[in-house]
Each structure stands twice: as structure tokens, then as C-alpha cells.
Specification:
Blueprint: E1 8-9, H1 21-26, E2 32-33, E3 48-49, H2 52-58, E4 67-70, E5 78-83, E6 89-94, H3 103-114, E7 121-122, E8 124-130, E9 133-139, H4 146-151, H5 160-179, E10 193-195, E11 201-204, H6 227-232, H7 237-253, H8 259-267, H9 285-298, H10 309-327, H11 336-340, H12 358-364, H13 368-378, H14 396-413, H15 417-430, H16 436-448, H17 452-465, H18 470-482, H19 486-504
Parallel strand pairs: 3-8, 7-11
Antiparallel strand pairs: 1-2, 4-5, 5-6, 6-9, 8-9, 10-11
Helix pairs in contact: 5-7, 5-10, 7-9, 9-10, 12-13, 12-18, 13-16, 14-15, 15-16, 16-17, 16-18, 17-18, 18-19
């Protein structure tokens, strides 16, 4: 199967209930941006203030069953998972009573962190100040922490290439925060590194906020705390580099080794003493030596001798590229969920109350294979009447265009989705003839190549050509669900089902 690298959309999509379809569609046509440092990625809602009622409803009144982590005595706060009415999963951090006595100070701190938007962060999406309650709300990451995958694994340890990816992505997160004027990160450790639905590592935004207005910034064992923090109680950018060094040690060793002990081991120049035995030697000595060297620099006693976040990214980037290329021959990028050995989480839009056609059922399950089979079987039956061509329009250009469509159909049937995209694009770009079916087919090809943004645009174009076509709405529903816009996906699914019901009662023949 030909697949295309996924892209990020450089536009924030606020969490609003879009009822007016045309307005909603216009807001979903931003430019493509392949860089993870786009200021705001689609699917991440804008920062807002939540009511306590909303957060109680999302967490079943802060039920103990919803707790995903708890701080110790030195950082008395609790993190809950929850689900908003629009079906978005969230993580809610509840601070100790009156940890922030002044609600204005707390709101300012939350808004400062809430301005950040990056694919390397588990982003902050809101806060709540209500009486004595102080809460912040972030994107929920469903695939556990680095600590769980490194120290408490059951099925498989993290392979070397994935450890390098974790190191790079977290370095990129810290560099982004630094470039946006938030260089201080409190208590960076393996519990602060989270894995999203794709298995990609992300840095928890909770560490960008202090545990209280003037409270402790470190809650872990003193052996892992930067030496200057023990002297003056202040966190600096150099303290963050030290803590990053402890995370590198965790990735190298698969254990939580006190930095002083690890430095003694590393000074002996025998990296095998440091390396995780569970890797069974499946790592590059050259790469491991580079990471050991970087960890050693980060853990220097003198803060000024430690690398900057820019240095971290510069050192780790070339290692990542080498490892990916060697990991799977002929492939530049291996998805993180594959390397972690987890199933990719797909959340289907809820099934509407109305009965669904086979295509509707397949879309509600997000079963792309079944959708493909049904579109192949339907062929161009639904295009009838969308084009009325005169004899003069049957030119050589027209014949060439239909030949491109024919090649696209063959590639689509044979599941060569990249080739199908190319051929269908030739057909569409000529513009003499419009075909909602071609748009629907290319939309599915984009979904199968992990480009839901492009898939959504094609499904919208199919609707423009044929405004009452259920297939166009079904394809939009799947693309929106892939973009984590589940309420919009549910709305589209219901519109599609309504159009099908209308057809069955005597509308346009199916």
C-alpha cells in the first residue's frame, strides 16, 4: 500500500458547536504545515475557562475511579481523567485547597501556559477558579507514561529507536517552550512524559506550572534534584537541563539511577555498564555513546556547563534520523505505536438513531477497508446527471482526462492509494468535468495515507458538487473523527443518515 506522510494543520480549532454548515466548512480549510512547531494544530481547542459544574460532570464528581495520578506529600495534587459533553477526553489537575490563594494569580499563570500550542506537548486547554477550587485542564494522553513503559512494562520493553524518539521529542518540546518565553519546567521526570493516541511521546504541560504560588518545584527524591535547587530553592533553565539528563539516564538504563552513581559509571567509559540489559544489545554503540555524552553534559554540577535546549535538539536530531532509516528498510518513519507495541486508538463517531446503509455502518465503525469495498462496488452510479457535456467538449483533452480517471480507478481497486491520488488529481485539476465519486474516492485514499485534513476537504468538495449526497457527509464524518473533532463528526453522521432516510421516502434514487 502506498502511504503518504501525515501533515499537521496550522490553525487552532476552538471547541465550539458549529451548527451553521457553511460557516463550519470555511473554518476547516487552513493551509498545510508539515512542521510540528506550528503555532497551533487543528484539533487542539483554544484555551478557555471551565465551570466547576462542567468538570464535575466530566469526572463523575471527581470520582476516585477517575484518578490517573496523585502527587505525594510534597506536592499534594491529583490528576483525573474526564470526558466533556462533546466527547473529548481531558486530564484535570486539582490543586490542594488554597494552593493559590489569589485567583487572579492562578488565572494569569494558567493563561500563560495556555498560550502554548505544540504537537510535542500535552497542551493546556483550560482552567477553573471557583471558591477554593483551583484546577487546570489538559489534553488527555491515553497510552500511559514513560515511567510505566520503561520501569513497569509487561509485554515488551521500549526499543532503542523509540527511546531516541522520546529524547528528541521532549527536547523539542522544551526548546519550543523556551522559544515562547516559558523556559522553566518543574520536576521533569519520566512520569511527565506521556504517550498520545498515536503512541507519540509528549511533555505534560502541568510541569510548566508551579504546584503552588510559592510552593516547592520538585517533589521527587532529593538524589535526582539539581544541586543548585538544593542550595537556593530556585528553578532555572539550567536546572531543566539537569532534569533532562536524568530522563536520558532512564532511557539509557531502563532504571532510575541516581545521577551521582551514573556519572561514576560513565566516567569509566564503559557504556555497557549503563545500558539497559533488556535491549539485549540491540542498539548502536555510536548512538548510545552520543546519548551517554549528552547525559553527562546535562548532569554537570556547574549549571553554566550544561547544554541549552537548542544544543539538546541539535545533538539528538541526527541520531533519530539514522535510527529510523535503519529500523525498517526503505522507510523513513516508523509510527510510534508500532514501536511501542500498542494498538492505535481510533474513536468512531457515535451511531445515530436512524437506521444506516452499509456505507453508513462502515463509516460509523471507521472501517476503511469496508468503505473501500463499498465505493468500488458503487462505482460511478451516484454521478448520474452531475455532468451534461456537449459534443464539442469531447476533445483530446477530455479523452486524456478520462484516461487519468480510469488509471485512478484501477489503482484504487488495487489498493495503490498513492497512485490513485496522483491520477485522480490529474482528472480534478483539468476541471472540465466534476465527479463527486472521484472526490469521495480520493478522500478515502487520503484517509488511508493518514492525511485526514486533505480527506476532509475532498469530502466537502463532493458535497459542493452534489449537496444532498449522503456519501459526502459520511466521508466528512470519518475525516472529522480522525481529526479528533468528535462532536462535528457525530453531527455529520446524523446529517448523512437523515439524507438517506429522505431518499428512502421517495427522494433521489439510490
Amino acid at each position: 500500500m502506498g502511504c503518504c506522510e501525515s501533515s499537521f494543520l496550522a490553525e487552532t480549532h476552538p471547541e465550539k458547536d458549529h451548527r451553521h454548515k457553511q460557516h463550519h466548512h470555511q473554518s476547516l480549510n487552513p493551509p498545510l504545515n508539515h512542521h510540528p512547531d506550528a503555532a497551533a494544530a487543528i484539533g487542539i481547542p483554544s484555551f478557555l475557562e471551565f465551570s466547576l459544574t462542567d468538570l464535575k460532570a466530566a469526572t463523575n464528581n471527581f470520582s476516585p475511579e477517575y484518578i490517573v495520578s496523585e502527587g505525594g506529600q510534597r506536592a499534594p495534587n491529583v490528576v483525573y481523567k474526564g470526558r466533556l459533553q462533546n466527547r473529548r477526553w481531558i486530564a484535570v489537575k486539582k490543586f490542594a485547597k488554597l494552593a493559590w490563594p489569589d485567583p487572579k494569580q492562578f488565572a494569569e499563570e494558567a493563561w500563560g501556559v495556555g498560550k502554548l500550542r505544540n504537537r510535542r506537548l500535552a497542551n493546556l486547554i483550560g482552567y477553573c477558579c471557583d471558591g477554593d477550587e483551583r484546577l487546570v485542564v489538559a489534553e488527555y494522553m491515553p497510552n500511559d507514561t514513560l515511567a510505566k513503559h520503561l520501569f513497569h512494562w509487561e509485554n515488551q520493553t521500549i526499543e532503542w529507536a523509540m527511546r531516541l524518539r522520546v529524547a528528541l521529542y521532549i527536547a523539542e518540546a522544551l526548546e519550543y517552550c523556551s522559544s515562547e518565553g516559558r523556559p522553566l519546567y518543574h520536576d521533569l521526570n519520566a512520569y511527565r512524559v506521556l504517550f498520545d493516541e498515536d503512541g507519540d511521546p509528549r511533555l505534560s504541560c502541568f510541569g510548566l506550572m508551579k504546584n503552588s504560588r510559592d510552593g516547592k518545584s520538585y517533589s521527587t527524591n532529593l538524589a535526582y534534584t539539581p544541586p543548585e535547587y538544593l542550595r537556593n530553592g530556585r528553578v532555572t533553565p539550567e536546572s531543566v537541563a539537569y532534569s533532562f539528563g536524568t530522563v536520558l539516564l532512564d532511557l539509557l538504563s531502563g532504571k532510575h539511577i541516581p545521577p551521582s552513581h551514573a556519572l561514576d559509571m560513565m566516567r569509566g567509559k564503559n557504556i555497557l555498564l549503563v545500558m539497559d540489559s533488556h535491549l539485549e544489545g540491540k542498539f548502536s554503540t555510536e548512538e548510545a555513546t552520543a546519548v551517554v555524552g549528552l547525559a553527562s553534559q546535562c548532569l554537570q554540577h556547574e549549571p553554566r556547563e550544561r547544554p541549552s535546549t537548542r544544543d539538546l535538539v541539535a545533538t539528538l536530531t541526527p541520531l533519530q534520523t539514522k535510527s529510523d532509516v535503519r529500523n525498517i528498510a526503505g522507510s523513513i518513519y516508523v509510527p510510534s505505536y508500532v514501536m511501542l507495541g500498542i494498538s492505535k486508538h481510533e474513536e468512531a463517531p457515535p451511531t445515530p438513531q436512524r437506521p444506516l446503509s452499509p456505507l453508513g455502518e462502515a463509516c460509523s465503525r471507521m472501517d476503511l477497508t469496508a468503505i473501500h469495498q463499498l465505493l468500488v462496488m458503487t462505482h460511478y452510479r451516484d454521478d448520474y446527471g452531475t455532468n451534461e457535456l456537449s459534443f464539442q467538449e469531447w476533445t483530446q483533452q477530455m479523452r486524456d482526462m478520462l484516461e487519468a480517471r480510469k488509471h485512478g480507478d484501477l489503482a484504487f481497486r488495487d489498493k495503490d492509494f498513492k497512485a490513485a491520488i496522483d491520477c485522480y488529481s490529474q482528472f480534478i485539476d483539468v476541471g472540465t468535468m466534476v465527479s463527486p465519486t472521484v472526490y469521495a474516492r480520493r478522500s478515502l485514499c487520503y484517509l488511508l495515507c493518514d492525511q485526514p485534513d486533505a480527506a476532509l476537504r475532498d469530502a466537502m468538495q463532493a458535497q459542493n458538487v452534489y449537496p444532498d449526497w449522503p456519501t459526502a457527509f459520511y466521508m466528512q464524518s470519518v475525516a472529522l473523527a480522525k481529526l479528533d473533532m468528535h462532536q462535528d463528526a457525530a453531527d455529520m453522521m446524523n446529517e448523512a443518515a437523515g439524507l438517506e432516510e429522505k431518499r428512502q421516502k421517495g427522494g433521489r434514487g439510490s
